[in-house]
Every structure is written in C-alpha cells, then in structure tokens.
Design a protein that fits this description.
This protein folds into two domains: 18-249, P-loop containing nucleotide triphosphate hydrolases (Rossmann fold), CATH 3.40.50.300; 258-381, Nucleic acid-binding proteins (OB fold (Dihydrolipoamide Acetyltransferase, E2P)). Helix 2 (112-122) crosses helix 3 (127-140), helix 2 runs parallel beside helix 4 and helix 3 packs across helix 4 (156-168). It has helices at residues 62-70, 112-122, 127-140, 156-168, 186-203, 214-220, 238-243, 248-253; strands spanning 24-33, 36-46, 51-55, 77-82, 85-86, 97-100, 174-178, 206-211, 223-228, 231-236, 258-267, 272-276, 281-285, 296-301, 307-309, 321-331, 335-342, 347-353, 368-372, 378-381. By secondary structure, it is α+β, with helices and mostly antiparallel strands. The termini are far apart. A six-stranded mixed β-sheet has the order 6-7-8-3-9-10, with helices on both faces. It has a five-stranded antiparallel β-sheet with strand order 13-12-11-14-20. A five-stranded antiparallel β-sheet has the order 15-19-16-17-18, with no helix packed on it. InterPro entries: AAA+_ATPase, ABC_SmlMolc_Importer, ABC_transporter-like_ATP-bd, ABC_transporter-like_CS, Mo/tungstate-bd_C_term_dom, P-loop_NTPase, PotA-like, Transp-assoc_OB_typ2. Part of the ABC transporter complex PotABCD involved in spermidine/putrescine import. Responsible for energy coupling to the transport system.
Length: 383
C-alpha cells in the first residue's frame, strides 16, 4: 500500500475561520449630525492582530467611524464592542485604545524621551519601569540616539516615529491611526509604510488606520474597508479589492481601470460573452455572472493587464482584441502609460513596464496598435 504524503494544513486567516471571535465588532452603527448622515448602518468585524484600513475620500465617514471607536463621538444608533465589551458610555480614557493623530501633537518643550514617557507618568507608573519601557520603545522605532532631542530638531519621519512610540508605550490593545503618514513626503511615506508594518507585526497590536491613499492602504493592510458616503462599499484583502471589485465605484477608486459597457449575449457556468460597441470587440471573461441574457453590464480591465503590439495577435478569434491610435505617452521611469484612442472614440489607458530604454521602445505617438488581454483580466460588474 502506497504511503500518502502528509499535507501541511492550510492556515485560515482569522476572518475566514468561523471559530475566531472578532476583537472589534461594529454592529449597525449610524452617526448623524443633524440631518447629515456621516456613517450609515455600518457593520464590521476586525480581528486581533490585524492591520485594518478604513479607506475613502473626503466625507466618506471613515474618520467619524474612527472617532466613535476612540470614544470621541457617540453612535446615534448601533453598538461597538472591543474585546467583547460594549463601549457604550465608556469614556476615551477608559478604553483599551490609543490614538495617533496626523498632526502628531508632540510637546515642543519636551525631549523625545519625555514625550514618549508622558502618558506613563500621568498613569503613575514607577520611574524605573518608565525608563525601561521608554528605552525599549525608542529602540524599536530606531530613535534611541535621539532621546535627548526636541521635536524641532527631528525630521518629519522621526517625529512620526516619536508619536508612534508615545502611542504604543502604554501597550494599548488597539491603536487607531488617523492619516498617520499624511505629513510626510512621498519617498519617506513609502519607507515608513514598511516600518509601520514591521513594528505592528513585532508587537502584535491591532492597528486600525484611516487613509485616503489607496497605495498606503494596499501596502500596509491585512484587509481594507472601502467607504463611500457613510457606507462600506466593499471589505476584503488588498488582492480581493483590486482584482475582484464588486462595484464600479470600488474598481475606479482603487488604482486605474478601463471600463467597457456591453450586453450579455452568452452566460455559461465557466464564462460570459459580452458584445461591446464601446470596446469595439466582443469581451470574453472566464467567470459566470448571475444576470439574464441581454442585460447591460460593465467590464473592468486594469491597464497593466492590456498588451500593446503593432502586429495582430496570432491565433486570435477577435475576442478581447481591439485597435486604436496612440495619442499620449507618459514616461515614468519604471513604466510608461499609453493613452490609446479606439475607433469607437473611447480612450483606453495601458501601463507597460519599460524593459528597454525609452529611445528603443517600438511603439510611439500616432502608431496604430492592437490591444489584447486574457480572459481572466476582465471583471464583470453589475453595480
């Protein structure tokens, strides 16, 4: 009898495991300011150790939701539970929560170590323990040698890490971050994103971050809730949000996307065929949709999933193949962006890696090109 190999069990993420209990539970929470509904019937489950992002534009309700978690705002309706405890009536200073603001709010007359130690002193922690905890936290954020400096003697990124250390030194179970990287320049922001993730993983503290920056949310988060006009449009991992948007809003809010309109002419268990005058070709997608034949739908195709060529693709049946004229090219160093005007008049955005130098690129302005993409590249959207 053949010996069967023992397979390593697949590890479920907490939100996939029915035996796991959410650490933060938001149940049908609504917040109204007079006639204005800032947060509208929102429910969320966030698990211990997650780096969770609330992502949305201005006025989407993300900051209001964060302030309700912190206790600075009271829900008009609904309940918020942290570690199984109903937060109704519990003031901010009694919640197992700390909050880091975009402004950092450092005391300018105090040194770095005094800023970090401030909350512990207010809580009456012994001096020896304060010294030990502050030293360990400054080492963690790589600021030990700046302990005696004042905030004005630090860079923006260093001040951000002081604020983070001050928030974490009290060992909160939950850290809320309100646009924590908004004051940093692009290069420093990208570097600090990875530092935040590493610190969060080392400490195991649950992070909930509010941001309007899609790249920031995608880089740092285990999961993202995309908010729009006070409601959650979609919750999922960065991959799920980007590759499988559930609505046009999410598809267009996260990254760049080309949206084609069309009519369903064939819907089988393993594919759907859409006739699209908008795209100038039939669109073949290798997943089914629960819509009747003849229904009008949208098809989202990301720019990096479209290939450009001057020659017609070999063996093509005409599906997912259209033609156009290159009208604009933006050279960004690692990639180039091509704006191609189709014969239908629609402009399609294509992103291609720069595998050769700019002067050696085979496609340039006013070239007639073929645009092709694979069956898995399109996502059918009915909302």
């Amino acid at each position: 009898m053949a010996v069967q190999p023992i397979r390593k069990p697949t590890r479920l993420e907490p939100w996939q495991d029915p035996s796991q209990t959410p650490y933060v539970r938001i149940e049908k929470v609504t917040k109204a300011f007079g006639d204005f509904i800032a947060v509208d019937d929102v429910s969320l489950s966030i698990y211990r150790g997650e780096f969770f992002a609330l992502l949305g534009g201005s006025g989407s309700g993300k900051t209001t939701l964060l302030r309700m978690l912190a206790g600075f705002e009271t829900p008009t309706e609904g309940k918020i539970f942290i570690d199984g405890v109903d937060m109704a009536g519990i003031p901010p200073y009694e919640r197992p929560v700390n909050m880091m603001f975009q402004s950092y709010a450092l005391f300018p007359h105090m040194t770095v170590e005094q800023n970090v130690a401030f909350g512990l002193k207010q809580d009456g922690v012994a001096k020896s323990e304060i010294r030990e905890r502050v030293g360990a936290m400054l080492d963690l954020v790589q600021l030990g040698r700046f302990a005696k400096r004042k905030p004005h003697q630090l860079s923006g990124g260093q001040r951000q890490r002081v604020a983070l250390a001050r928030s974490l030194v009290k060992r909160p179970k939950l850290l809320l971050l309100d646009e924590p990287l908004g004051a940093l320049d692009k290069r420093l922001r990208e570097q600090t994103q990875f530092e935040l993730v590493n610190i969060q993983e080392k400490l195991g503290v649950t992070f909930i971050v509010v941001t309007h920056d899609q790249e920031e949310a995608m880089t740092m988060s285990s999961r993202i809730a995309v908010m729009n006009h006070g409601v959650i449009a979609q919750t999922g991992t960065p991959t799920e949000i980007y590759e499988y948007p559930q609505s046009r809003f999410v598809a267009e809010f996260i990254g760049s996307v080309n949206m084609f309109e069309g009519r369903v002419v064939e819907d089988q268990s393993d594919h759907v065929l859409i006739r699209s005058e908008d795209a100038g070709c039939d669109l073949y997608i290798n997943h089914a949709v629960a819509v009747p034949s003849g229904a009008t739908v949208g098809v989202a195709v990301r720019p990096e999933k479209i290939a450009l060529s001057k020659e017609p693709p070999a063996g093509s049946d005409g599906r997912n193949v259209t033609t156009g004229i290159v009208r604009e090219i933006a050279y960004l160093g690692d990639v180039s962006i091509y704006l191609v005007e189709l014969k239908t008049g629609k402009t399609v955005r294509v992103t291609a890696p720069n595998l050769v130098r700019r002067t050696e690129m085979p496609i340039t302005w006013d070239d007639e090109v073929y645009l092709t993409w694979r069956p898995f590249a399109g996502v059918v959207l009915t909302q």
